[in-house]
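User: I'm new to structure prediction. If I give you an amino acid sequence, what do you actually give back? Let's try with this one:
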Amino acid sequence: MLTHMEVLSTLEMLKNEHLDVRTVTLGISLLDCASDEPARFIDRMSSKIAAIARDLVRVCDQVAVRYGIPIVNKRIAVSPIAVAACSCAPDRMVEVARAMDHAAKGVGVDFIGGFSALVEKGFTRGDHALIEAVPEALAVTERVCSSVNVASTRAGINMDAVYLMGKTIKRAAELTGERDGIGCAKLCVFANIPEDVPFMAGAYLGVGEPDSVINVGVSGPGVVKKALDRARQANPRLDLGQISEIIKHTAFKVTKVGELIGRRVAHDLGVPFGVVDLSLAPTPNVGDSVGEIFQSMGLGSIGVPGTTAALALINDAVKKGGAFASSYVGGLSGAFIPVSEDLNIAQSARQGFLSIEKLEAMTSVCSVGLDMIALAGDTSAETIAAIIADEMAIGVINRKTTAARLIPVPGKKVGDKAHFGGLLGEAPIIPVPGTDSSGEFISLGGRIPAPTQSLTN
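Assistant: Good question. You get back a string of structure tokens that encode the predicted 3D arrangement of the chain. For your 457 residues, that looks like this:
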């Protein structure tokens, strides 16, 4: 239970520190919509989404007003389309994506995730069809998001899938080149993808999940920064252990708020409550940045020496506080470091403090990955695949989720800036050393075997 003082401090978070519920995501299983006739699958899918999600936005708005807590995004995640619509050819997969987009627009949600495939150990016919359809599907829709899991600690890394995703990302960028390759901002490549992620672009509903469920993603980087600033102003001699405690207590309160909202929405919709994702999700707004937390911890900028250690502390403290606040923690639950979506992180990248090597090192201690990174438009599919492979290896060996959301911006080179708009923000094009030096390795294909950590039975 929150004490009187904790209630007051939570109200202060809402008023002045950018506390909100970043997303309420309704998961909907489409497995019972399966059909060998694509048109019938589309009809069943559209009808089910409309029936279950028709009141989602209204209920979220009512709950937000009732508690005075903003709910920024309302979203839907569905079963992996490569599974639910496995009989569809690539052109029919594009039709499915259009229908998903139309259904999402009809119920008023921001995004719909689940145009997804799980190929860590190999491909099915549906997997091939979906991945082939991804570039066009993301180009002709506004709300559809896609994710592909190409690796896991149990299975290893499917390097054929990694190479294929390098080519897919290039094609998706080309088809949305007039918008700086924004199609790639809706496409994420994963290792060890969770089944209950509420955040886009990775959200989908796993086959082990209920028929429908509410998962919540909380925010809070501004809250953490303000808490640290107040504490260090009151006591400049705070050590890192004490700073960890402050972050932990702050995460506890933020998680309580997220679970309160999620349970109320689930109750009013008549569906089960799933999890709270503890990820600190930034925006391009001043005061709502993960990068600024590092400055409050005494670093000149995110990216300078000491950054990886600081991120490890933040990530651990957030998880400890959240796990104490709720028994139902899931999703990614870490500290997001999306370059374009965080004003401070984007600025550090422009100043040269954050390179792709440093970003990769940071992902070894947080729960996400190389996120919203803009690359030169002439970056080859092989180089993109090699970057993905490196990130997948970190996830597989460390038994954790990692991901890559890379955007080769057509017509732009290192030093230029990519503009995505809205919550996606903008980012500088960052250099990649040794470009076009990985082609022979990537072309070998096959599967990098699972590590010995997979033998845990």
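You can read the tokens as a compact description of the fold. Here is one thing that stands out. The domain at 216-454 is CATH 3.20.70.20 (Anaerobic Ribonucleotide-triphosphate Reductase Large Chain).
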